[in-house]
Write a structure and sequence with these properties.
alpha/beta; Rossmann fold; Helicase, Ruva Protein, domain 3; 4 domains; five-stranded parallel sheet; 19 helices
Length: 471
């Protein structure tokens, strides 16, 4: 996928360089500006997904820069950085449209996670602009593309429930567009003026997710030098999207239930609760009823969340939408090629429609993006598509019943634990031992992978010190 672009705005040269280098190491495309005026110059010359800016700067403050970006570049997300003494200013910046705020000094994981989430929202907003401009007439509701009867029914449901405060549960395989539906509900609701707040429950370790959701009071634990606002509080008068809610620990499920029942929240280390007006939209790729039966999900929370259920069909069950989605992806990523790619050939489209797409819409978009980059002419041909899409012998191809192929167990059998351990080890090595990245490769949650790492006793090899030169 295309690297997210970030503009780091900071008048302290050392702090700016450290922040920029950290983001570059994580794969972001980064430019730097020493003040707000230079930042606006950079924005005029090129687009950015995220602007990471200090609040207190000479010539133009972070607040002034935020106002300019909100007016001229609405898809760009702004993350403000503030010293500990300026928390109230940062909260005010969020009310004025900032995506989030960070306090100095900011640890690496928090920085990367926040910028990544902001970039995802920026890409979503950019996609919506493209949909409006280039797919006029094919779009029945913002963000949702589909002419299949099942998708038309989903669009009808979204339109009916959006104006209400009803809690919604969105079900479907990974890559089917659950967050897009959640954002559509928010945009069509009276809460649309406020920022949509999203969190992936499977991507954050148990030790951090409570603090992420509910925030903390000063002195709540070692290192809590200032009060921090949680995402539930940030979603006041807005929509909170809990993606992969089935991965939420049982202890936190009861706290989310309290938010829904009592409309109250209490920060970690706090003694008082305060009122919040939050609309919850949740999503999962699991069967929550089965999770309840197995004791992994609270029954009372299930009934609170499951007021309206929207089930997204996998792409293989709505093949008639594949040409529409493929052409949308073509328009979305056409700018990546030096020579504009104008169309998808009939032969290539037949291949796309014939494939089962185990990764659903997300995988289809990735395949079109890759094809655009490799295409040598003005149209995409079969040779430009990924190998797994072309070869029916590859994993992920459909069998004669339209189901993805399975791994074939050899006649001599396998040692499953050895096989599982080897796969996990490969994923960790490919991800440079970053658990979140490896979990994504394996299609499992952060906590599940952490459990298996502990089970197999897998740890990152220690770097051997270079031998000392004897002179």
């Amino acid at each position: 996928m295309t690297r997210a672009s970030v503009l780091v705005v900071e008048d302290n040269d050392l702090e700016r360089e450290i922040t920029a280098d950290t983001l570059r190491e994580e794969g972001f495309s980064v430019e730097e500006a020493p003040n707000g005026r230079r930042a606006l110059d950079c924005l005029r010359l090129g687009s950015f997904d995220v602007v990471l800016t200090d609040l207190m700067m000479p010539r133009m403050s972070g607040d002034e820069l935020l106002a300019q970006i909100s007016q001229m570049y609405p898809a760009t997300q702004v993350v403000v950085i503030t010293a500990h003494g300026s928390i109230e200013s940062a909260v005010e910046a969020m009310k004025n449209g900032a995506f989030y705020y960070l306090t100095k000094p900011t640890d690496r994981d928090t920085l990367v996670m926040t910028v990544s989430r902001a970039a995802e929202l920026a890409h979503e907003k950019q996609e919506n602009v493209l949909l409006r401009e280039r797919l006029e007439g094919h779009l029945s509701i913002e963000g949702i593309i589909g002419q299949d009867p099942a998708m038309q029914e989903i669009i009808r449901i979204v339109r009916r429930i959006a104006p209400s405060n009803a809690t919604a549960l969105i079900q479907g395989e990974s890559g089917t567009g659950k967050e897009i539906v959640a954002r559509a509900i928010h945009r069509l609701s009276p809460r649309t003026a406020r920022s949509f707040i999203a969190i992936n429950c499977s991507a954050i370790p148990d030790s951090l997710i409570e603090n992420e959701l509910f925030g903390h009071e000063k002195g709540a634990f070692t290192g809590a030098t200032e009060r921090k606002m949680g995402l539930v509080e940030a979603a006041d008068k807005s929509t909170l999207f809990l993606d992969e809610i089935a991965d939420l620990p049982l202890g936190l499920q009861s706290k989310i239930l309290r938010v829904l029942q009592e409309r109250e929240v209490r920060r970690v280390g706090g003694h008082e609760s305060f009122r919040v007006d939050v609309r919850l939209v949740a999503a999962t790729n699991r069967n929550l009823a089965e999770e309840v039966a197995e004791g992994r999900f609270r029954e009372d929370l299930y009934y609170r969340v499951n007021v309206v259920t929207i089930t997204l069909p996998p792409l293989r069950d709505r093949r008639g939408d594949i040409p529409l989605l493929a052409n949308h992806a073509l328009q979305k990523y056409a700018h990546l090629a030096t020579d504009r790619v104008m169309e998808i050939s009939r032969e290539a489209m037949e291949v796309l429609v014939d494939y089962s797409w185990p990764g659903n819409v997300r995988q289809l978009e990735s395949a079109i993006e890759r094809a655009i980059l490799l295409c040598e002419g003005d149209r995409i041909d079969p040779k430009d598509l990924p190998e797994e899409v072309l070869s029916r012998k590859k994993l992920g191809k459909a069998d004669d019943k339209g189901r993805p192929d399975r791994f074939e167990i050899p006649s001599e059998g396998i040692n499953f634990e050895t096989f599982e351990r080897d796969l996990i080890l490969q994923a960790m090595e490919k991800s440079d031992w970053v658990i979140a990245k490896a979990a994504k490769l394996l299609g499992m949650s952060y906590r599940t992978l952490q459990y298996r790492l502990d089970k197999f006793g897998l740890k990152k090899p220690e770097q051997k010190a270079a031998p000392m030169e004897v002179k």
